[in-house]
Design brief:
alpha+beta; 180 residues
Amino acid sequence: MTDKKIIEHTINWIKNIVIDLNFCPFAAKALLKKSIRYVVLQQTTATKCMEAFASELNYLESHSDFETTFIILPDNFKTFNSYLALVEKAEDFISENNFEGIYQIASFHPKYCFAGSSDSDAANYTNRSPYPMLHILREDSITKALTHFPHPEKIPERNVDFAREKGLKYMQLLRATCIE
């Protein structure tokens, strides 16, 4: 599959799920401003992924017009545990390289499963993306956006409740439409 098609699927997911279901109340602004970078790493390794991750942090440091980057990993990190190990490496990199408080990672994976939940819990679809991906966010942008949002601490709970109310089949079908 081409990088262009993978990015198209990702944008569909952002529009149809993240924005339309209001899972992230400030994603629409970044999409409209075209301040999202998409980096596709096909047939990659953990080492190459971490190199790209470091490169993206440096890119964001010197390009303030971009709010966020999605590093999309369509061919690797298929198991959720292998993906979580990558997320841990990325978080360690942020901490060890003085990016703490500047950037954070949001994790999305096709098999995302919240701790303590079952694989069939519709709530997992709040973080189930078409492909494994690392989402790098600027912390100051999040902080600014949250000042205009009432009760931001309730966003995750509201998202989980919404997904469970809609049900597993609904959430599965909605995500499936993003890649058709």
